[in-house]
Amino acid sequence: MKSFLKEMMAYMSARKKWWLMPIMLILAAFGALLVLAQGSAIAPFIYTIF
Question: Does position 40 have pLDDT exceeding 80, yes or no?
Answer without folding.
Answer: no
